Amino acid sequence: MCVFLLFLLFGELLNSATCCPDGCNCHEKVIECRGGITDVPSPLSPQIVLLRLINTQITELDEQSLHRLPALLGLDLSHSQVKTVHTRAFRHVPRLRSLRLSFNKLSSIPGQVFGNLTGLRQLLLSGNELETIPPGLFDGLLQLDLLDLSSNRLAYLDENVFWNLDNLTVLDLGKNSLRQLPVSVFSPLAKLHSLRLYFNQLESLRPGIFDNMTELLELDLFQNNISQLAPRLFWNIPKLEKLTLSRNQLQTFPHQSFYYLPRITFLSIYVNPFTFLPDQLIGHMPALKEFYLYETELDTLPDHLFCNMTTLENLSVSFNKKLRHLPKNIFSCLSSLSRLKLEANSLEFLHRDLFSGMINLDTLILSFNNLRTLPNDIFRNIPRLANVSLDNNQWETLPGEVLSMAAMLKDVTLGHNPWLCTCDILDFAEWVGQKQSIIKDYEQVLCYMPPHLRNVSLGSLSSEMVHCWATTKVDFLPPTTEEYILSPAAHSAVLLPPTTEEYILSPATHSAVLLPPTTEEYILSPAAHSAVLLPPTTEEYILSPATHSAVLLPPTTEEYILSPATHSAVLLPPTTEEYILSPATHSAVLLPPTTEENRIPEIVTTLSPAFLTPSPSDSTTIRPTSSKGHPLEGGSSNLSLAFYNVVILEPEDTILHHNRLSGWVYLWTLPPSGSYFTFLVVFHVLLVAIGIALIVASVYVLYRLDQAIEQVANGTVNENNRNPSGRKHRFSDKI
Question: Which segments of 263-413 are extended strands (E)?
């Protein structure tokens, strides 16, 4: 009996010594082997539950590779050189729950290789060279929970490939070559929580492809070639929490694309060539926390794009090179937002109320834009603002109080801006000097202009360095017993001489010009900067712009016009005749007599309204006129003709028709905005539309006629082919 017990004890010791192969690590029922082994180690204890063979040189799993391991629950054979798997390689491990064959060199797998693994929960085949999935490969995997087929070469999926995977919750098809997906391929996966289709070549998604996935929580579609989405594509995924559509070829979205997604917390649509977003794009999203919209072709955003994202905390609208404008109320609903990134756009202006109501905003990034100025109170309603990035813009100056309103600031960047170090920037420069401890890039906040101050630290700027002693604020005025005028050039008060005389401030010398005694009238000369004496007021004068002196008007019994060229009055001939001032000769041109023989038939046009003869404002109220343009006595009010010796038209008038009869030229014109003009335009458009409709109808009739003739011809040929003897008989009957 003792000998027998000693034999059993020796057997157990021998067995325990041989259960851990060389080069492996063994811990209770777990064995891990790495390195240069070329086959599954043997012998192994039948009690092990987890076998890990990682980074090995194993190239094949044959029928006996896993024999005598009935308790094995997990097999990890990843990052090895496996090229072949025998059809019955897993028949000795029916209790297997997890199988990892990732990152090997498998190009194909036998169709029934997993047939006896009815309890398998995890199957990882990622990182291989699989091009197709054989029919029935997953048929026996009724308990499968996770299936990873990523990083293969799959270009096509059969519509029944996942037919029996009713309990699958995670499906990873990323990093393959899929271009199209059958509309029913995901229909059996009613319990799926995560679907990953990233890094494929999908060009479109068919309507209804996600309709049966009511439990889906995560949908990854980024890095594809999707150019358009079907309407209501995501409406039947009510529990979706994460949706990524980034890095595709989308130019816009269908109306209401993101409606009925009440649980979504993460949405990204960045790196798409958007040129337009519909006003009604995003529905109620009470749980959304993160939204990313960058690297697009948008030049503006819809006013209410973010109004249904009231719980949003992180928003990125960056790297949109055409985005120059943001609507005033674009962020008005984002009271919960804590981080806003607007960097690397082309923004040129920000409205003073753009950030109003963002009471929880902590971080604001405005770097790498084209901003030149900021309203001095733009940060007035952001009490928690702590981090602001204003670097790499086009700031030349900023109001001194613009950042003082953000009392909680802890981190600021201002560098790489063309700061203009003049007197206007002193207040802001003082703030920079006081707050250099919170300015991360203080060493890069340097003057750019003027040249003699270039690369001088903005925080060290002083009024003496920019010579602002003459423009400093005046704290008091001189004694009020004397009068002063502020000189715009010298920026100082100019003392007025005693008030017994009158003075005018000269813009050139910036001094008071004494007016001569007030018994005579003077006009200030802009050229000489002195008062010009007006001659006695018994005659009329006009100030000449050229000589800066008064031009005497001749006696008022005759009519004169001031000539712009000679700066003198041009005498009008007696008023019994009609004259027009000639711009070339600067003299009055006599209009010909108004007799019937001398009526001028030609049409004279000009662009100047100064010489326009009297004309009615509407062609329906034109009355007949005399040769001098006056209404004829007793003229009928319902006539539509007006008679002129000289007709002067405005550029906008439209000439409908003219002809000549009995020495007269008859001219019909139409005002540019009258009812007749509108009628003619509408009538013309209507005629064109009718013509196009007739052409389309004719083409359609010819098409239908051609089809009918072809059908008749085909019917005749078929009848002849079916009954050749009858054809001969009828032919003989006809003879």
Answer: 266-268, 290-292, 314-316, 339-341, 363-365, 387-389, 411-413
Cβ-Cβ contacts under 8 Å for 8 (sequence gap 6 or more): none
User: Could you give the CA distance from residue 702 to residue 49 in angstroms, rounded to a whole number?
Assistant: 78
Model confidence band, residue 597 (pLDDT cutoffs 50, 70, 90): very low
Residue 500 is predicted with a pLDDT of 43
pLDDT band at 568 (very low <50, low <70, confident <90, very high): low
How much is the mean pLDDT over the chain?
78
Range of the domain at 659: 591-675
Same domain, 418 and 458: yes
Domain final residue pick, 675, 702, 718: 675
Q: Give the C-alpha separation, 145 to 140, whole Å.
A: 13
Buried b (16+ CB within 10 A) or exposed e, 536-574: eeeeebeeeeeebbbbeeeeeeeebeebeeeebbbeeee
d(CA 724, CA 732): 13
718, two tokens: 């078929």
Report pLDDT digits (tens) over 644-686: 555 655 555 556 556 666 566 666 666 655 666 678 888 889 9
pLDDT in tens, 86-129: 999 999 999 999 999 999 999 999 988 998 999 999 999 999 99
Angle subtended at Cα 273 by Cα 267 and Cα 277, rounded to the nearest 5 degrees? 60
Residue 391 contacts by C-beta under 8 Å, 6 or more apart in sequence?
367, 368, 413, 414, 415, 416, 417, 441, 444
Establish if 106 belongs to a structural domain.
yes
Position 508 in a domain: no
Looking at the structure, do residues 572 and 666 belong to the same domain, yes or no? no
Phi, psi of 595 (to 5 degrees): -65, 165
Q: Name the residue among 128, 80, 70, 78 with its Cα closest to residue 100.
A: 78
Asked if residue 549 and residue 441 are part of one domain, the reply reads no
User: Do residue 568 and residue 596 come from a single domain?
Assistant: no
**CA–CA dist 43, 579 (Å, integer):** 127
What are φ and ψ of residue 44, in 5° steps? -125, 150
CA–CA distance, 190 with 287 (Å, rounded to integer): 24
State the total domains in the chain. 4
On whether both 567 and 656 belong to a single domain, the answer is no
Q: Which of 473, 489, 523 is the last residue of a domain?
A: 473
Q: What count of residues does the chain have?
A: 735
Q: Identify whether residues 383 and 464 lie together within a single domain.
A: yes
pLDDT in tens, 290-308: 999 999 999 999 999 999 9
Q: Strands, E, within 595-691: which ranges? A: 654-661, 664-670
- Same domain for 426 and 414: yes
Peptide bond just before 110 cis, omega within 30 deg: no
What percentage of residues in the chain have a pLDDT greater than 70? 66
**Which CATH number fits the domain that encloses residue 464?**
3.80.10.10
Joined together, the tokens standing for residue 664 give 């007269």
For the record, the structure tokens of 118 come out as 């009815």
Q: Name the residue among 227, 229, 232 with its Cα closest to residue 247.
A: 227
> What DSSP designation does 714 have?
H
Handedness of CA 90, 92, 97, 102 (dihedral sign): negative
Measure the CA–CA gap between 115 and 109, rounded to whole angstroms.
12
Question: Is 585 found in the same domain as 655?
Answer: no
Q: What is the pLDDT of residue 617?
A: 40
As a whole number, mean pLDDT of residues 194-205 equals 96
Instruction: Assess if residue 380 is contained within a domain.
Output: yes
Nearest-angstrom CA–CA distance, 38 and 48:
20
Would 97 be classed as within a structural domain?
yes
